[in-house]
């Protein structure tokens, strides 16, 4: 056998092994699967993988190379089954990941609201035997959510009853944020814990900025848990450097409305603009923050929906760009559950009603 034939087979074997490993995941990623299949097809001289070709292509493709492909047809058959079965974890991952859907309390069909905001970077880094993988991102003009998984070795068992935490933050400093202040709100929510895996959502709000395409960093440093028996105490079990970098190709699903000089209820300033996306609302005003008054949405069916935390569905943040001659105030409302901007006809701030529509 020639030397280049040995190398050729070794490369094919590596691609097939990578394909099998991805298929063995709890939620296989279709983008990663297609990328591996495309690489394997190029190795064997075929065209890029097309799942629509289905079983017919599986039966007829490249018969002359069958002896080299080994278990490839079996693995490909499994891929085609997964791509064909609706309702599987793989099918969910073609749109919004099931863990993010649960995080936002989405009902059936609501994930379609976020299609333009979804990206699947799938980047991984390992240190101290612990791997961190980015599974999916979700962004709009003022916020970024990152779904990631932390996988531990057999020597580190995770007790699901403990209050686990991964120290670190989302670094947006490389993004061209068009903001009067560098203020941001960061957080890290644990979604699920199993004996050797943590699923979490890291997020960053930039209510005084505008998210744009660019490089994003997730910087994590310590894995541990909180004890609350007497006073809060963080117990680290692993320290390392888990620095993940990827490019955010941002498509903003927000609708921005600039009303014609509408005054605030007390006349101290004006409502400058309102930005709506399925998971947030940002009101920019002068004179005072809009959140100083009751704020509610008016829906297509005529009902009103208060934007406050009392009903357990919304959180409210307030930032001000102080120190300026005519400061702007940013009132940020995060939606839980999501709301389609097309279902909102108006925003009411105190007694001031702002009709909404695409700018």
Care to describe what's here?
This protein is α+β, with helices and mostly antiparallel strands. It has three domains: 3-93, no CATH class; 98-248, Sandwich (Immunoglobulin-like), CATH 2.60.40.1630; 255-355. 19% of the residues lie in helices and 38% in strands. The chain contains seven helices and 19 strands. The chain has helices at residues 3-23, 30-43, 54-60, 66-69, 72-84, 89-93, 98-103, and strands at 118-119, 124-127, 130-140, 143-151, 163-171, 185-194, 197-205, 214-227, 233-248, 255-257, 262-263, 270-277, 280-286, 295-299, 304-306, 314-320, 328-335, 344-349, 352-355. The strands form four sheets. Strands 1, 2, 3, 4, 6 and 7 form a six-stranded antiparallel sheet that branches. Strands 10, 11, 12, 13, 16 and 17 form a six-stranded antiparallel sheet that branches. Helix 1 packs antiparallel against helix 2 and helix 1 runs parallel beside helix 5 (72-84). The model is unreliable at 1-10, 43-94 and 179-183 (pLDDT under 50).
């Amino acid at each position: 056998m020639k030397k280049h034939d040995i190398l050729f087979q070794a490369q094919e074997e590596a691609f097939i092994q990578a394909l099998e490993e991805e298929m063995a995941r709890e939620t296989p990623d279709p983008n990663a699967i297609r990328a591996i299949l495309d690489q394997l097809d190029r190795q064997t001289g075929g065209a890029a993988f097309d799942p629509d070709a289905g079983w017919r292509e599986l039966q007829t493709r490249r018969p002359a190379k069958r002896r080299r492909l080994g278990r490839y047809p079996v693995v490909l058959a499994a891929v085609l089954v997964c791509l064909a079965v609706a309702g599987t974890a793989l099918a969910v991952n073609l749109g919004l990941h099931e863990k993010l859907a649960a995080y936002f309390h989405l009902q059936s069909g609501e994930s379609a609201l976020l299609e333009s905001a979804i990206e699947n970077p799938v980047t991984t880094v390992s240190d101290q035997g612990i791997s961190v993988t980015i599974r999916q991102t979700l962004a709009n003009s003022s916020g970024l959510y990152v779904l990631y998984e932390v996988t531990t070795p057999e020597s580190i068992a995770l007790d699901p009853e403990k209050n686990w935490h991964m120290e670190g933050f989302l670094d947006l400093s490389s993004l061209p944020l068009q903001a009067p202040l560098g203020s941001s709100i960061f957080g890290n929510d644990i979604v699920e814990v199993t004996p050797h895996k943590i699923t979490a959502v890291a997020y960053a709000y930039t209510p005084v900025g505008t998210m744009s395409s660019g490089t994003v960093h997730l910087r994590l440093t310590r894995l541990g848990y909180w004890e609350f028996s007497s006073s809060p105490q963080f117990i680290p079990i692993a320290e390392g450097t888990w620095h993940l970098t990827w490019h955010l190709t941002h498509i903003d699903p927000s609708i921005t409305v600039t009303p014609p000089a509408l005054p605030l209820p007390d006349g101290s300033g004006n409502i400058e603009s309102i930005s709506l996306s399925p998971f947030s609302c940002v009101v920019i005003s002068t004179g005072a923050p809009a959140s100083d008054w009751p704020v509610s949405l008016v829906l297509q069916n005529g009902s009103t929906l208060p934007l406050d935390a009392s009903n357990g569905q919304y959180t409210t943040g307030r930032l001000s760009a102080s120190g300026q001659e005519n400061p702007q105030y940013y009132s940020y409302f995060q939606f839980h559950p999501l709301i389609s901007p097309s279902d909102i006809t108006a925003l009411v701030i105190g007694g001031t009603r702002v009709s909404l529509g695409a700018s």
